[in-house]
Amino acid sequence: MTVEEAFAAAPLEPAARVLTVVAAVVAVGGPVLLAITRSGGLTVLLGAPTLFVVLIALPLAFSPSGYAVGAGELAVLRRAARPLLFPLASLAAARPTAMPRSTRLPGSGGLFGWWGRFANPGWGRFKAYATDRRRGVLLEWPGFKLFVSPEDPEALCRAVLARRLRPDRPGPGGSRRPPGGRMGEEGAP
Asked: Angle 14-37/41-52 helices, nearest 10 degrees?
C-alpha cells in the first residue's frame, strides 16, 4: 500500500488511561508484593515477566497508533503488530460518531484503547481499533462495520470517501475487490 495520507490516533481517553495505569501497577507491583510477603515469593517474582507480557506487552502491541489511507485501502497501524488493511472499494459510508456502550467480544476493553470485536443493539457486531470512544469514525461496508478514532475524524471521513473506487472501475491489479482473507485480517490484501 502506498500511503497518501496519515492520521494519528486520538489521545487515549481518561478512562483508558486509568485502566492502563492500574494494569501496569498490578503487573509490576503485584508480583513484587507477593515476593516480599509470601514464602515461595521468589517463584512468583520469576513468573512476573509472564504476567507483564499478558497484561501489558500484548495489549500494547495490538493497540492502534494511527491510520493511513492509500489508493483503495485504509490501514490501521498498530504499535508492534502488522497493520490491518481494509479495502475501500465497497465502503458504503463513513461518519463521525461516538462508540455506544458495547459488549466486548475478543479484544481489549480499554487497556491501551479498544480493539477487537464488539457488539451493541444499534450497530450489531463490529470491529474497533480506537483510543477514544467519545469521538471517532464509523466505517460501514456491506455486512461489516469498523470504528476508529483518529485525532481528526472529519478529515479521515473525507480521505476514505475520496479514495473509494467506483464499482465499475477495477482496483489495483485489475480486480474490483482485493482477493483473499476477510476484511481486517492480518495478511489480507
From this structure: 160
**CB-hemisphere CA count at 13 Å for 79?**
16
* Chain CA centroid to CA 176, Å: 26
2-16 pLDDT tens trace: 889 999 999 989 888
- Span 47-104, pLDDT tens digits: 666 666 666 778 888 999 999 999 799 999 999 999 999 999 999 999 999 999 999 9
How far apart, in whole angstroms, are the C-alpha atoms of residue 189 and residue 183? Answer: 8
Cα–Cα distance list, 47 to 25, 28, 32, 34, 71 (Å) = 16, 11, 11, 11, 46
How far, in Å, CA of 82 to CA of 79, rounded?
Answer: 8
In contact, 37 and 30? CB cutoff 8 Å: no
